[in-house]
Amino acid sequence: MIRLGLAVGAAVVTPGALVSACDGGSDAATGGRASGGAPARSATEGTASNVARPEPTAPRCNDLTGLDEQERRSRTNTGYTDRSPHPSRRCDNCRLFVAPTAGEPCGTCEVVAGPISAPGYCRRWAEPVPEGAPVEETGSPG
At 123, phi and psi to the nearest 5? Predict the structure, then answer.
């Protein structure tokens, strides 16, 4: 037996069956399920506007607005990245890191210009000073 079919726009018409792509192939008799038993999807399901996106786990401190070329180079030359590849060497446990003020997502650094991410890293990472140890002052005498 030969079955004839005719494709029309978004629908395929065959003798005895009509499957429409417009409503996902759902049918009231199948309880809102598309042919093949899969649940029918709404027109917006799975579109870019309603797909959940993962939230970043740390702030991205890459806004370099206001930095001059030399300050930008300090970031590049030190290999600064806002995610440390070394779990034990992060900006927030480097002696050069200045923690963010209340309500601010990014800190600063004594060596790298611009906003600095606490879980970041650069090649200038410095061992933290042990608690209670004397701290050497850096800079020129006044």
Answer: -70, -10
**CB-side neighbour CA atoms (13 Å) of 110:** 12
Q: Which domains does the chain have, with CATH numbers?
A: 1-46 (no CATH), 56-129 (4.10.490.10)
Q: What is the pLDDT along the chain (142 residues), one digit of tens a residue?
A: 555 554 445 444 555 544 444 444 444 444 544 455 555 554 545 555 555 544 445 557 888 999 999 999 999 999 999 999 999 999 999 999 999 999 899 999 999 999 999 999 999 999 988 887 776 665 555 4
The residue count of the chain comes to 142
